[in-house]
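User: Fold this; tokens only.

Assistant: Input:
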Amino acid sequence: MRKRITGVLIVLAVILVLSSAVAHLSPRTTLVAQEAPRTETETPVTVQSRALPMFMDNPYVIADIAEVASPATVFISVTWPTETVDTYRRPFSTWDPFGSFFDFWFNDPFFNQPRQRTVTSAGSGFIIDQSGIVLTNQHVVGNKGEGQTITVVVDAPGLEREYEAEIIGSDASLDLAVLRILNEEGHIFPTLPLGDSDATRVGEWTIAIGNPYGRDFEHTVTVGVLSAKGREITIYNSETGRPQVYKNLMQTDAAINRGNSGGPLLNIKGEVIGINTAVHAQAQGIGFAIPINVAKEVLDELITTGGVSVPWLGIWYQNITESVAQQLRLPDDKGVVVMDVVKGSPAEEAGLKPWDVIRRINDRDIYTIDDVQDLMSQHKAGDKLLITILRSGQVQMLEVTLGNKPDYLR
């Protein structure tokens, strides 16, 4: 009996030992793949939808604008009155060492017969009214009454023909001119909308349409950006022999060439924001346009009166320097000093004299020449001004009626 119990115990012991071994060899835990917990510094990635650029939405946006604007963009040809020119030409080449000798003997009436020469010019413009009102540059067409013949070529569906036109108004200082197409048939012309040049931004897209180098390249479309605003350039005026200063111009790198003058500079909405007027002779990709707001301000006056009146006082003046203040024994440097008075000017008629110190105009104190220019820009010819001056230590008040600035002084 004892041996049987001992054997059972041995068997139980062996079973326990084997069970323990099997449990030791088996994995204690079960591995389950699961998403790692998100830390506080991590944020979910969100893809935001952005409006694509207009060119991505419509890669033909420039073509669409050109298609609408081109029919309202016209080619302008001007034929000027014939002029008498000297027909003498040296019978030898210009590098001939005996050139001066032959100039002396051949420069006589027999070899120097005058002949008539016809002068022509050309440019671009754009229609702003369905009746046929065209806006362009003054240097393209000149001024009214100069005897020129103006032809406007329209290339709109059903209106492809040449029309005669006349100048309604022009202003050389602004380089603006308004034409009227002689529309006897009563045609309805396509027009271009006028935008807001003050709202333009440097870097925005610009589109120029015109006729560079004549009709062979008519309705040429070029694209660029608005490179800058408020530019000032000086161009030599062959008619007056004096430099002409143009201020507040828009600069663009849209290609502008000879013949583009007077054509429209458009924004991406197809609105006219400028009038192409000049290029930089020593550079590429630098063109200039007159802001359309400048034209809009004087458009009615050009149409109704034929020109733009510029308020004119008729004095040359400067800021008061320390030496001038000492010389005139002034109490301070307030005002501007009159250096000269133009004969026959409103200033002369009112009694202004050199060395008068303008201290006040109407109810505004004057400190610098900028104050005078700013105040003059707010008035027009015919307005009356009450000017307070200091003359020889005495305060006087003069009433001046502003005139219209002569063309030769603009």
